[in-house]
Each structure stands twice: as structure tokens, then as C-alpha cells.
Amino acid sequence: MSLQCDIVYKDNGEIDYIRTESGQPSKLFNELTEMMGGDKQSALNLYALTESEDFIEKSPTVSDVMQYAQSTQKELTAEQIYKML
User: Fold this and answer.
1) For 26-85, how does the pLDDT look when each residue is reduced to its tens digit (9 = 90+)?
2) Where are the domains positioned within the chain?
3) Residue 69 phi, psi dihedral angles, 5° rounding
4) What is the pLDDT of residue 39?
5) CA distance 45 to 43
6) Which of 2, 18, 48, 60 fits as disulfide partner to 29, beta carbons 3.0 to 4.6 Å?
7) β-strand 15-19 against 6-9: which pairing, if any?
8) The whole model's pTM is what?
């Protein structure tokens, strides 16, 4: 399985944004980043859960992601995310 998006990085190696399959910045990632107080790595960990085989929402909201994360007690590490790429 691989993420159905691209992680776009700044020149300094920090996460800039997530580009969706349609080539647009991910609204969900931006909302998760805001919810996480600007912590893009934590937002990416949560966003990656939406790529799980178990995640069934087609157009998830932040609420959907948080409910799923709490129900599975799963949060992917950066290493797990990079293995999915």
C-alpha cells in the first residue's frame, strides 16, 4: 500500500503540505495541522491513517480521522509513513 498523495517538503526538509491525487493541497491535512497547533509531523501521522486499509471514509473529515485514531489506538510513526511511500 502507498499513500495516494505526495508529501511536499520545503528546502530545509520540513513538511510543507500534502498534494492530493488531483494536484491540490489537502484540505484535510491543513485542518489536521491547524488542530495539532501547527505540528505538521503529527498531522501527517494522523493523515496517514486515512490511507489504512481499515479506514473506510472516502472523503474524511477531521472528526472522522480522530474517531478512527481513537478507536484503533493507532498512530503511524514517521518511519512507518516513509515505508508506505
Assistant:
1) 999 999 999 889 999 999 988 888 777 766 666 777 887 777 776 665 555 555 555 544
2) 6-84
3) -60, -40
4) 93
5) 5
6) 18
7) antiparallel
8) 0.68
Integer Rg of the chain from CA: 12
Answer yes or no: are the C-beta atoms of 20 and 60 closer than 8 Å: no
Tell which residue, 7, 12, 25, has the closest CA to residue 78. Answer: 7
Helix H segments across 1-85?
Answer: 27-35, 40-49, 62-72, 78-84
* 2/13 Cα distance (integer angstroms): 21
Eight-state DSSP code of residue 7: E
Which amino acid, 64?
Answer: D
- DSSP structural state of residue 73: T
